[in-house]
Amino acid sequence: MSKSHQASANATGHTHKTPSRKIHRKYTQIVFALYMAAIMALLMCMVIVGVNTGIGAGYIGRVLKTYMLAMPVAFFCVLGVRPVVMKLVAATVDLG
User: 17, 47, 74, 96: which could join 41 in a potential S-S bond, CB 3.0 to 4.6 Å?
Assistant: First the structure.
């Protein structure tokens, strides 16, 4: 049993589960899309801003400004593209 779900006895001898701080597994696809989009959008913004305007004064500000647009776009793109990617993986990888 994980630490977050360990049962503990109270004064009357009844046990109760310690509440978990983790997000429920039914949200796995959304959490995956959020992390994937957040990381990829940041990396792409850093590279593209660096290539287009250089890594000099104001670089971080330009990256963050670009990221504010790129991250939500990336999030919805990951959500939309995931089913297609899963079909492509299933068609090209022996999952058996």
Answer: 74
